[in-house]
Amino acid sequence: METMRTIKEVKEELEAKRKALDNFELDPDDFTDQYDEMLREVDGDIKIGGCTYDAPTVLKEIDPTAYCCGLNDYVDSIDITDTEGYKAIEEEIEELENELNDLEDQEN
Question: Which of 82, 80, 35 is nearest to 60 (CA)?
Fold first, then answer.
């Protein structure tokens, strides 16, 4: 049997989720595959002395600082509100708001 939460408990959780949404940040490490794919599309393969190399691999090896800066710039260009993590918190907030409304309606 599921126990009913109090209005106070739901409000506290709702406030915590809103703070999490306000402080939500993207982790560049979560976007390396997308950034690497973008580099492949833009630069293609790198050919040196008859050998062919993967563009992101070359950049990582030759200039890791430039790779990191490019990755950070790539992540900065992403609309944070379109990411799965952000949307998940928004959905949790919506569910909590609905739960709170139901509890308040039951109280009245």
Answer: 35
Predicted local confidence at residue 103, as pLDDT: 87
In eight-state DSSP terms, residue 83 is S
Q: Is the dihedral of CA 95, 98, 103, 106 positive or negative?
A: negative
Q: Domain extents for the chain?
A: 7-107
Helical pair 55-62 and 32-43, crossing angle rounded to 10 deg: 110
For residue 3, name the pLDDT band (cuts at 50, 70, 90): low
Contacts with 39 (C-beta within 8 Å, 6 or more apart), sequence order: 55, 56, 59, 70
Q: Is the pTM of this model over 0.90?
A: no
